[in-house]
Amino acid sequence: MAFVSSWKGLRFDASAPTTWRPAVATAHARKHASLLSPRAWSVSRSRRSFVVCAVSDQASGVGQVVPLVDLRGKRALITGIANQRSIAYGIAQQLRRAGAELGVTYLPVNERAESKVSKLVEPLGASFLHPCDVQSRSDLEGLFETVKQKWGGLDLLVHCLAFANREDLEGNFSETSRNGFSVALSVSTYSLIEMCGLAKPLFRPGGSVVTLSYLGAERVVPNYNIMGVAKAGLECSVRYLAAELGPACGVRVNGISAGPIRTLASSAIGGITTMIRNVEQNAPLRRTVTQEEVGKTAAFLLSDAASGITGQILYVDSGYVIMGSPTFESPA
């Protein structure tokens, strides 16, 4: 229950230590105050008005305001951060802002990789930084052993891993190599299945998993090629994992199908700039999306605010998915 009242119509008790406690100053405010009694008041401030909400004493405590997306006390394992433009980094930032404690992995391709990611996530106060090549079973086992030793359990798993050979992301799809197919499916699809299997005994009830997909999983996108097949497998895996982990340990599994964003990974796709321009010209919002928007969606899906959502793919693409054809200008 909430109403908006002019800030001039309310007086506030300056002695309130944590939240504004309004005192009724006008007949209009007194009228609405009677509707709230005997429940507690909580007031949030906007530019010109205060939104006054009734908060149940029993549910939240007098004067206590709990954010809708609240990850305080949650421990989240983040995979796929390569640089500041990584979608995984945008997700990590939003999870930290929501109060989650983070553990981060990096791909040990060279000596600089650890230092680069370490500096990047330092402001986020990550509890640990662990090398992990998902094509190595020993790396994955070592990662989850670290999770067990550091935290004793796991609440949230963020899977932002995808790879295909550059030559398989352009040209004719039928020319995809056998090795290229195997690598793309192993890194981009099977890694989610394997990580969930290793995390299963560590998951706490109410846990959640989020992975990243793209529209190419269900529609033909020029040059996306083998990655479209990998993402289709990933989305199917989301449903099967949700069906398994829900009854087994109360864990939800969902995916985000994000619009094209300029990242290190997307730069390998032939024509990525054209893909982005196409979204900007035809999506209902006439723009592509940002790291921050995908990060906020991930934080929502991982939080209790999405406690009834599992096995789903949520589109964050400025509405591009709803369009049936390119936008045409009306004839004069």
Automatic annotation (TrEMBL):
What GO molecular function annotation could you give as one example from this UniProt entry? Answer: enoyl-[acyl-carrier-protein] reductase (NADH) activity
Protein's UniProt keywords contain Nucleotidyltransferase? no
Q: Could you confirm whether the keyword Lipid biosynthesis appears in this record?
A: yes
Residue ranges of the TM segments: none
Please name the pathway: Lipid metabolism; fatty acid biosynthesis
Q: For this chain's UniProt record, which GO biological process terms are given?
A: fatty acid biosynthetic process
Q: Which CDD domains match?
A: ENR_SDR
What are the entry keywords? Fatty acid biosynthesis, Fatty acid metabolism, Lipid biosynthesis, Lipid metabolism, Oxidoreductase
Report the family membership. Belongs to the short-chain dehydrogenases/reductases (SDR) family. FabI subfamily.
- PANTHER family, per this entry? ENOYL-[ACYL-CARRIER-PROTEIN] REDUCTASE (PTHR43159), ENOYL-[ACYL-CARRIER-PROTEIN] REDUCTASE [NADH], CHLOROPLASTIC (PTHR43159:SF2)
Note the NCBIfam families from the entry: PRK07370.1
Name the record gives this protein: Enoyl-[acyl-carrier-protein] reductase [NADH]
Native species of this protein?
Cyanidioschyzon merolae (strain NIES-3377 / 10D) (Unicellular red alga)
